[in-house]
Amino acid sequence: MESAHLWGYVHMLLFVLWLGTELGVFTAIARVKNPARSFEARTRLVRIATQAHALPRICFALILPTGVELTGAINVYPLTPGLNAASWVIGIVWVLVILIGVRSQGRPLAANLRVVELVFQAFMGLSFVAYGLNSLATGAPIDDPWFAAKLFLFGLVFWASIAIDIGFRPFYAPFNEIALEGSTPEREEAISAAINHTLAAMVALYVLIAVIAFISRVKPF
C-alpha cells in the first residue's frame, strides 16, 4: 500500500472518530438545557459529555502528526525528518496531557493541564492561520492555494476548539448553584446561554472541517 493511501486513511479515520463522538457530545449537552429533567439526569448527561469529549481531543492531537505524514506522502510540501519527528513528539505529548487531565478530573492538576492545552492550541491556531494567509497572499512558502487555504482553515479549527471550552465554562457556576439551592429562571437562562454558545462553536467546527474536506478533495483553486 502506498504511504499516501495509508496516511490518508488514518487521517480520515481520525476525523470520522472526532466528529462522530463530538456529535454525541453535542446531543448530550443540548439535552442538559431541559429544566424538566431531574438534576440527577442532567448531571449524568454532563458527565457523559465531559468523558466522551476526551476522544475528539485525542483525535485532534493525532491529526497533527498524521497530517504532516500525509503532506509528505503526497509531496505537496517538502518535509524534513526533524519536522516529522517534532510533529509526533508534539502529538504524543498532547495525548498524554489529555489522558493525565482526564485521570485527574476534579483536581487542580486537571485544570492546570487544560490551561496549558488551551494556550498551546491558541499558539498553534495563530501559527497555521498566519502561515496559510501569508502563503495565500504571497505564494510562499506554499505555492498551492488550496493547501494554503486548508492550513488557514485548520488554524481556525484550533480556535473553534478553544471556543467550545470557553463557551461552556460559564455553565458550571449556575449548575452548581442549582445543586445547592434549586432551579431559578435566572440560573436556567445562564445555563442555556452557555450551552448555546458551546453548540454554536461546535457547529462552526463542523462547518470548518466540512470546508477543509471539500478543499482537500476537490482542490477548487
Task: Report what the structure shows.
With 221 residues, the chain is mostly helical. It has one domain (3-218). The protein is built from eight helices and no strands. It has helices spanning 3-32, 39-52, 54-73, 81-103, 108-138, 145-168, 172-181, 185-218. Helix 3 packs antiparallel against helix 4 (81-103). The mean pLDDT is 91.
Beta-strand percentage? under 5%
User: For this entry, what is the oligomeric state of its chains?
Assistant: single chain
Distance, first to last CA: 29 Å
Strand/helix succession: HHHHHHHH
Helicity range: over 70%
Helix count?
Answer: 8
Low-confidence stretches: none
Strands, total number:
0
Largest sheet: none
Mean pLDDT equals 91
Overall structural class, as computed from helix and strand content, comes to: mainly alpha
Any idea what the shape is?
elongated
Rg over C-alpha atoms, rounded to the nearest angstrom: 19 Å
